[in-house]
Specification:
24 strands; 455 residues; binds flavin-adenine dinucleotide; 25% strand
Length: 455
């Protein structure tokens, strides 16, 4: 009998398994592949590696803007793919080593809940039952599709396949302009593919800051991406060497369609019906203060949880919260108010806290914006499009922030503290930013928000 059995070795599950050592818990981690999950194997890490490869390519392409003369760059696709695989292997190998060091028993196989405290695991050598005083379910998610877009891995693909394309596709239609769709649009256009993005909602990055979405759309359009917002696509027509994507009375012909319409929870067949956990459209309901389901001793974390963001760092935080409750009996809830949400496009889009619309529902708000166009460091690196925006309650604390621009995903973190600590604009503005940095744009925004603008 283990203190803890974790089913699923992605960010939610492996964070729980690793963190348990702080309390001296014995842990078994049941994983049907290799620990790492979507994030390490076919999500965050490989996608960001491809984005960086595309950035290097685009930087070389535009080197003459800086007086650096080169011949036009060429892609060695196999070398780039090898690099992506090497990065994944480095991190997956590091995780395996860490799990071993923390004495986590990794059991390879498909896990299924079998009543309270029991998990039956289909391993290569048959089925075995693993028992735990507590069980955390962390089985993650899979790419969804829509009717008329059956995934064949060739002409109609998901991000799983796109990360392993054996060569650069010339013409790509992306169905779904959310975070994953936009990241692929950004990297593909930088690698000189023709890209069409279809989004049913009125803006790309639906639900996010409309001005940020507009800014990203403008910059990607300038680099050749064609956006079709408020547009529903008809069923794809697969030809012998192309695919046609119909919309309205028109259509586009491409080599491949990447479907990125969201991710569904992996909760089919994991035995939830053998417990009293409540499941809503596949997502598991939990008490968000402890991550415990309606079944005592059964917890859920990560992408399968109902109502929380499908992000790796949310999974980490939920894993930690669940383990803390299991070990101490005390609730240490995740602070969902200040979780950064980053889209790693070029330029990056990062948000934290309430959106403007959400803040307006709480009362009167004050929005302050500062553009990157006059920021020294942004001009130096030739990336001075975009802005920093803070959203504060009138005469009250900063409740949300948006950054669109270079390294926005790094810069958002100081605004995370402002939101998390409910800082007043004047309190946050009291600190001095180094010059010349991109972060000065945050400092300038805070000064303006405090009613004392500088530049
Ligand atoms: C292309 C892409 C890019 C992304 N980029 C980012 C990003 O930049 N930042 C970010 O925060 N998030 C990103 N995400 C989302 C992120 O990957 C997920 O939020 C995160 O991986 C969820 O963690 P998880 O532990 O809940 O599930 P997963 O990572 O999906 O892991 C679940 C694990 O459980 C295993 N499993 C499933 N069922 C069973 C079973 N019955 N028995 C045993 N094992 C099982 C699976 O094999 C898997 O290893 C991205 C996702 C994609 C697809």
């Amino acid at each position: 009998m283990y203190d803890l059995v974790v089913v699923g070795g992605g960010p939610g599950g492996y964070a729980a398994a690793l963190y348990a050592h702080n309390f001296g818990l014995s842990v078994a981690l049941v994983e049907k592949e290799r620990p790492g999950g979507t994030c390490l194997l076919r999500g965050c890490i490989p996608a960001k590696q491809w984005l960086y490869i595309a950035e290097v390519y685009a930087t070389v392409k535009h080197a003459s803007d800086f007086g650096v003369m080169t011949s036009a760059p060429e892609m060695d696709w196999n070398a780039a793919l090898d690099l992506k695989n090497k990065t994944v292997e480095t991190l997956v190998g590091g995780l395996a080593g860490l799990l071993e060091k923390r004495k986590v028993d990794v059991i390879e196989g498909f896990g299924r809940l079998d009543g309270a405290g029991k998990v039956s695991v289909e391993t290569g050598d048959g089925t075995r039952t693993v028992e735990g005083r507590a069980v955390i379910l962390a089985t993650g998610s899979h790419a969804r599709t829509i009717p008329g877009y059956e995934i064949d891995g060739n002409r109609i693909v998901t991000s799983d396949h796109a990360l392993d394309w054996p060569r650069r596709p010339n013409r790509v239609a992306i169905v779904g302009g959310g975070v994953i769709g936009c990241e692929f649009a950004s990297l593909l256009t930088d690698l000189d593919s023709e890209v069409h993005v279809f989004e049913m909602m009125d803006q790309i990055l639906p639900g996010g800051d409309p001005e940020a979405s507009k800014q990203l759309s403008r910059q990607l359009s300038r680099r050749g991406v064609k956006f079709y917002t408020g547009v529903a696509v008809g069923p794809a027509k697969i030809g012998s060497d192309s695919v046609t994507v119909p919309y309205g009375d028109e259509s586009v012909e491409v080599d491949v369609v990447l479907v990125s319409v969201g991710r569904g929870p992996n909760t089919d067949g994991v035995g939830l019906e053998s417990t009293s956990a409540v499941v809503d459209r596949g997502f598991v309901e939990v008490d968000l203060t402890t991550m415990q389901t309606a079944q005592e001793g059964l917890y859920a974390v990560g992408d399968i949880v109902a109502g929380t963001a499908q992000l790796a760092h949310v999974g980490f935080a939920e894993g930690i919260a669940a383990v803390t409750h299991i070990a101490t009996g005390k609730a240490a809830p995740v602070d969902y108010r200040a979780i950064p949400r980053v889209t790693y496009t070029h330029p990056e889009v990062a948000e934290v806290g309430l959106t403007l619309e959400e803040a307006q529902q709480e009362g009167e708000v004050e929005v302050t914006k500062h553009a990157f166009n006059g920021v020294g460091r942004a001009i130096i690196i030739g990336q001075n499009q975009g802005f920093v925006k803070t959203i504060a309650m009138k005469d009250g604390p900063i409740v949300g922030a948006v950054v669109v621009g270079p390294f926005a995903g790094e810069m958002i973190h100081e605004l995370m503290y402002s939101v998390g600590w409910e800082a007043l604009p004047a309190e946050a503005a009291a600190f001095i930013h180094a010059h010349p940095t991109l972060s000065e744009a945050v400092g300038e925004t805070l000064l303006s928000a405090a009613g004392k603008s500088l530049h």
